[in-house]
């Protein structure tokens, strides 16, 4: 999710500095990461940040007409609905991944036993949410199928264009880039999730293009990226 | 392809074939794609519902969620999306996600959580269709599940209390309705002249908001300000679902219409019985007003209750 914001802010040509902190969740006004700190204002979550940036005079979707704006919002919901939930599922509901990767990573800033307690608490919260929306009964294969369907839809929508709404990047491009890049570069137990995305060559090309255009040459970003554990670079 | 398919779902009222959005979606899709479904609405004489309606049973296969049921129908060659391009198929998925994220919470809230609506309309209606003693338990359970879903998906910080969450979900729902209206524009259906999966989903979500007569109706009022969406719902109801007693069924699905006819006859018989009971109850001094409303609403689906609106 951090990447979505970075991409979005880079696309708006706004300079940013990325800082990693262990208590970041508590500093954020809504408890959700990431958040931006501008002057004496703190804003979190994609929606409010987009509006905040818009109020300051920068907007990526001004060139769209009403129907296109409706489409963009619909696709953003699709990404949130499918990809984000699938990522959460994989991180917290797939037992193998939870044991080997998520628990150690989530609990790493804290001493024992706090690390175990906090990660179990988070896991319980996420599982409760999955149950409420009906994802608890899904197997890993079904989740991967859903991700595949979502990627298929995104791939169809992107087609051969450079961005989702032709020549200019919009919030949707930032969001999709953030999620797909995370999926493609985070190391998990199995590579099935990233394989699903790699099946769609226009999506990987899209990610590469945005990475090259907006992230290359920003050295400070690479140190932030290195701070995220188990990352490997996007395939060249 | 010839295997008989039975759909069990919640019944309808106020001019709708079903009150339940998911049941309505599946019924609409079946009509659009020409699938011969036998529709069994839940009433007291049926086996108690598990709460996971709608359910499609075909030979030995039991399928329970709308998306899976639609997939099954497509595999049986009842495909309403045949003429769509790949991009339109992708748009369908995106808009369905929009509906589920933005509109569904407000719909659930209007039906199951808003206190006046729940106590005066939803609970009595559903309780009257479930056999005792499950009728005491199941509506409460559905209400708790709805609340759970809303609070877990929308109720994260900084929205801690239910009132703040309510304000947010209604704002989202109104925005969603506006977006749908802009997307529909002046065309008859979302992708041209023939209805597709997206039309089924939109109809399933919009029609209950549009038609059901609740005491608290600000979402319905907002919807009525978007005439193209209202026209969309009315068109589908008149062209694909003919619910008047004397109406002739449109081409196809004779069994479904025969069932509907039987249901209407049953309802008429019940309404005669209910009128008799009504007279008896009027003489009783302790009769709570809530029951009167239920009886009147259940009588043939006509809006005779003083608090309900006339249907457009």
UniProtKB/TrEMBL annotation, chain A:
Keyword NAD tagged: no
Domain Mitochondrial outer membrane transport complex Sam37/metaxin N-terminal span(s) in chain numbering: 5-122
PANTHER family from the UniProt entry: METAXIN RELATED, METAXIN-2
Membership in a protein family: Belongs to the metaxin family.
Any matching Pfam family: Tom37
Role according to the record: Involved in transport of proteins into the mitochondrion.
Record keyword Secreted present: no
SUPFAM superfamilies, sorted: GST C-terminal domain-like (SSF47616)
Location in the cell: Mitochondrion outer membrane
An annotated GO BP: protein transport
Source organism superkingdom: Eukaryota
Assembly, per entry: Interacts with MTX1/metaxin-1. Associates with the mitochondrial contact site and cristae organizing system (MICOS) complex, composed of at least MICOS10/MIC10, CHCHD3/MIC19, CHCHD6/MIC25, APOOL/MIC27, IMMT/MIC60, APOO/MIC23/MIC26 and QIL1/MIC13. This complex was also known under the names MINOS or MitOS complex. The MICOS complex associates with mitochondrial outer membrane proteins SAMM50, MTX1 and MTX2 (together described as components of the mitochondrial outer membrane sorting assembly machinery (SAM) complex) and DNAJC11, mitochondrial inner membrane protein TMEM11 and with HSPA9.
Keywords assigned by UniProt, alphabetized: Acetylation, Membrane, Mitochondrion, Mitochondrion outer membrane, Protein transport, Transport
Domain Metaxin glutathione S-transferase positions: 148-210
One GO cellular component term: SAM complex
Protein name in the entry: Metaxin-2
Listed InterPro entries: Glutathione-S-Trfase_C_sf, Glutathione_S-Trfase, Metaxin_GST, Mito_Protein_Transport_Metaxin, Sam37/metaxin_N
TrEMBL record, chain B:
An individual GO BP term: mitochondrion organization
Organism the protein comes from: Loxia curvirostra
InterPro entries: Glutathione-S-Trfase_C_sf, Glutathione_S-Trfase, Metaxin1/3, Metaxin_GST, Mito_Protein_Transport_Metaxin, Sam37/metaxin_N
GO (cellular component) term, any one: SAM complex
Name of the gene encoding the protein in the UniProt record: Mtx3
PANTHER family for the chain: METAXIN RELATED (PTHR12289), METAXIN-3 (PTHR12289:SF30)
Residue ranges, annotated region (Disordered): 279-312
Subcellular location: Mitochondrion outer membrane
Keywords: Membrane, Mitochondrion, Mitochondrion outer membrane, Protein transport, Transport
Domain annotation Metaxin glutathione S-transferase: ranges: 173-236
Lineage: Eukaryota, Metazoa, Chordata, Craniata, Vertebrata
Protein name listed in UniProt: MTX3 protein
Lyase among keywords: no
Xref: Gene3D superfamilies: 1.20.1050.10
